[in-house]
Amino acid sequence: MKKNTGGEGKKRVLILSATAGAGHVRAGNALTETAYALSLPLDIQHEDILNFTFPLFKKLYNDLYFALVNTSPDLWGYLYKHTESSGKTKQKSPFIKLFDHFNYKKYLRVLEELRPDAILCTHFLPYQAIADDIVKSIWKIPFFVVTTDYDVHTLWINPAVHHYYVATEEAAWTVHSHGIPENQITVTGIPVMPQFITPSSRTLLRNKFQLSANQFTIMILSGGYGVGVIDKLVISISEFLAKYARRRFQLLVVCGKNQPLYEKLKRLSFPTNITPRFFQFISYVDELMDCADVLISKSGGLTVSEAVAKHLPMVIFDPIPGQEAHNADYLTENGAAWRAANVPNLNFKLMQLIEHPELLKKMEQAERRIARPEAAKHILEDLILRLP
Model-level pTM? Predict the structure, then answer.
């Protein structure tokens, strides 16, 4: 990898994410695209830290995460809670230190080669892995952290971090409770791509996708990797909507990278009052959000931040215990979303929203109140001011 020399007068910033869930990478992409869109005096480079580790480690790190959240979410929730702690960050065991020494040798060489003015992390691994090196007096590169959920797990906290950018005042409180000074924490929101900020015409976009301008439209988002029981959910919702025989509905289902799910849904038959549309992994989720009246989804930090930026009411279904459950709590406490405990409960909530549209308006108003759509801009502008 070539050394990044940067443009004249520009600060060199290395953004580091990790492909354990799509949200960390999307946050890094949002920061990168925002820097370009605003022509900020930054020379940005975005990398996945796992590319600088042992190939087997990268595979296991990804595979274990998806295996846990897909097949054993309760176990993931237990591990999330069990590894949470109050007070100072726990010390690594000698074995972990030895493993990290070899696993991250390439990573340290890359940092020495690039010599950025700052490292901006959207995952905790880039700094937790080499925390012992960062605190040495000879270390010159400051680490800045962008958290990607509405609360902050202990794994994100490390005294080696120069500054934290967090989603909410509550998240800032959590970070401060671990001994981090308040002047090292800034509340900015979670960064989203520029297209989620730009207002769009629902009429024009529904016309673009050949959708009716007036029919109630439900969007179901399974996430970038098609996580969840979306096929059963779609069938249940369709059977429920069929009861409104005199009313027509549109169903937009994003399957992500789950090709079997996409093929299965394409083969299903639907009631005559429902027009279904299925999408695979797409780059225009923002446009579909503008077409929808309500979103049904899990509560990943990036997904819900994008929906809030679009002022799209949400019904959160089947959140993963841990970070997604915390996100769901924050949104429901602020009136920006409803949470469905199970499929019958989800259908009841849809009935309420269909028959009482003023409830959707209340959620939209709540989202406008808590939205921080320009988080990426504020993070990058603040970062520039903190660099010498």
Answer: 0.90
